[in-house]
Automatic annotation (TrEMBL):
Protein's UniProt name: DUF86 domain-containing protein
Lineage, highest ranks first: Bacteria, Bacillati, Actinomycetota, Actinomycetes, Micrococcales
Length: 103
C-alpha cells in the first residue's frame, strides 16, 4: 500500500484489497486472548478505529467505506501502528523477562 498513488487505490484494486485484509487480520490479532501487551501498545481511539474499519470491511462491504479516508489510513496511519506493534513484539515486556527461554 505504501507507494500506491491515490488514483490507483480503489475498490477492487490489489492495494485496496491488501489494505482491507491488513485491517481484518490486524484487528483479529488484537482480539486474541493473549494480545493484552499488544493492545496496551495502542490507544483506545486507535483500537476503536480499527474495530470500526474492520466491521465495515468484513460486514458492511466496501460501499460504506470512505475511500479517501481509507487511503489516508492505509498509507499514513496503519504503517505507524504496525511499526509500534512490531516493536512491542520484538521487545518482551518486563513481566515476561524472567530469564526463562520463551516457548
Amino acid at each position: 500500500m505504501l507507494g500506491t498513488a491515490r488514483e490507483a487505490f480503489f475498490d477492487g484494486s490489489p492495494s485496496y484489497d491488501a489494505a482491507s485484509m491488513v485491517v481484518v487480520r490486524l484487528y483479529g490479532l488484537l482480539e486474541r486472548a493473549d494480545s493484552g501487551d499488544l493492545r496496551a501498545t495502542l490507544t483506545e481511539d486507535e483500537i476503536a478505529a480499527l474495530r470500526t474499519m474492520r466491521n465495515i470491511v468484513a460486514h458492511g462491504g466496501d460501499a460504506r467505506m470512505n475511500d479517501e479516508s481509507f487511503w489516508t489510513t492505509s498509507t499514513r496511519e496503519l504503517p505507524v501502528v504496525v511499526t509500534r506493534l512490531q516493536r512491542a513484539i520484538a521487545t518482551p515486556s518486563a513481566a515476561d523477562d524472567d530469564g526463562a527461554p520463551s516457548e
